[in-house]
Amino acid sequence: MPELSEKPMKQGFSSIRAAARLSVAPMMDWTDRHCRYFHRQLSGQSLLYTEMVTAPALVRGGATHLLTFSPEEHPVALQLGGSDPAELAEAARMGAAAGYDEINLNCGCPSDRVQSGTFGAILMTDPGRVAECVAAMRAAVDVEVTVKCRIGVDDQTPEEVLPEFLSRVGAAGCERFIIHARKAWLQGLSPKENRDIPPLDYDLVMRMRGYFQGLHLSVNGGITSLVEVERFLDAGLDGVMVGRAAYHDPAGILAQADRRIFGTGEDRDPVAVVHAMLPYIDAHVAAGGKLGQVTRHMLGLFAGQPGARLWRRILSEGAHKPEANSALVLRALEPVLEGAAVAAEG
Q1: Are β-strands 239-242 and 22-24 bridged in parallel, bridged antiparallel, or unpaired?
Q2: For residue 109, which of 69, 66, 79, 78 has the smallest C-alpha distance?
Q3: Global model pTM greater than 0.85
Q4: Domains observed in the chain
Q5: Which pLDDT does position 2 carry in this prediction?
Q6: What is the pLDDT of residue 1?
Q7: Residues labelled as active-site residues
């Protein structure tokens, strides 16, 4: 297998790659700006990603509101969906101008919507097109352009497809890939089933690490704990991307990440994180936003702890009400504090 030579990194690339030791995956309907702001309170170092934003929505639809984010979210990456090099280049320019630290191209989403638009996982069948897109995006922006991909789709043989994909797209200027270690079945499986049913092949990703020493490779798929993150990093991978586990148990993945993964900072106390969120929540509600738009991302904060069920219930039942504000969050926190006190006494 040919090895890509080491290339000098552009200024600023080293810091974003350091953050990529641990990242939170782009997840539709989940990793919006409120979610990312919340996750940033748990980890100051981890790399955060937007939901996928389609290039046509930005370039043709003028949906620039989709690029809004808070400065506190840095380091933060914009994930784009598309397959037209010129359109992706323009969308990348818009993302870079908005201040994103990285532009990522989605080559892994298996939904019918992205197939009909000829982007997402179906691009695994056309590495030449992906290479053209990457080259155009890299020429358009100074921030790093990356690719998130699968190990293959449908009846492709991953051992053949993935190395060719990395080689061709890497030669076009993409030096960092996030590899979801599952095939995507575009026929026969739903997007939800595609997250669970195709078997994981971490060994194949590790072999790519050996083949392509000049690339920065992160693994994604099925990773549910910091212990697993540490094992992959110790095995030689450059980064690990965590998806649903970081959403459903954010403290379990992110609260200790700065110390354990990045070797800096202290562990974050989930109760302190709630209090850190209150000014953000007050500002959002004062601007006409709904409490539930923020707190829906916080429901898993106390997963597995005494009082967690009441925390979730109080927020779920009350956050949609017109008068709901940060006072409800403090009320939902009371059972957690009481549970912690009882546990300490026992």
Answers
A1: parallel
A2: 79
A3: yes
A4: 13-260 (3.20.20.70), 270-345 (1.20.120.1460)
A5: 41
A6: 42
A7: 109
Tokens describing residue 8: 């000098």
Position 342 scores a pLDDT of: 86
What is the SS3 string spanning the chain?
CCCCCCCCCCCCHHHHHHHCCEEECCCCCCCCHHHHHHHHHHCCCCEEEEEEEEHHHHHCCCCHHHHCCCHHHCCEEEEEECCCHHHHHHHHHHHHHHCCCEEEEEECCCCHHHHHCCCHHHHHHCHHHHHHHHHHHHHHCCCEEEEEEECCECCCCHHHHHHHHHHHHHHCCCCEEEEECCCECCCCCCHHHHCCCCCCCHHHHHHHHHHCCCCEEEEECCCCCHHHHHHHHHCCCCEEEECHHHHHCHHHHHCCHHHHCCCCCCCCCHHHHHHHHHHHHHHHHHCCCCHHHHHHHHCCCCCCCCCHHHHHHHHHHHCCCCCCCHHHHHHHHHHHHHHHHHHHHC
Cα gap 37→39, rounded to integer Å? 6
The answer to whether 54 touches 269, Cβ cutoff 8 Å, is no
pLDDT for 193 equals: 78
State the pLDDT at residue 331: 98
Q: What digits encode the pLDDT tens for the residues 76-109? A: 999 999 999 999 999 999 999 999 999 999 999 8
- pLDDT mean by block of 10 residues, the chain; 346 residues: 44 84 97 98 98 96 95 97 97 98 95 67 95 98 98 95 98 97 84 79 97 97 97 98 98 98 95 98 97 98 96 97 96 96 80
The identity of residue 124, as a single letter, is: M
How far apart are alpha carbons 54 and 206 in whole angstroms? Answer: 30
Asked if 271 and 336 touch (Cβ cutoff 8 Å), the reply is yes
CA 280 to chain centre: 21
Characterize 305-333 residue by residue with b for buried, 16 or more Cβ atoms within 10 angstroms of its Cβ, and e for exposed: bbbbebbbebbeebbeeeebbbebbeebb
Number of C-beta neighbours around residue 76 at 10 A: 26
Q: Amino acid identity, residue 307?
A: G
pLDDT of residue 189: 73
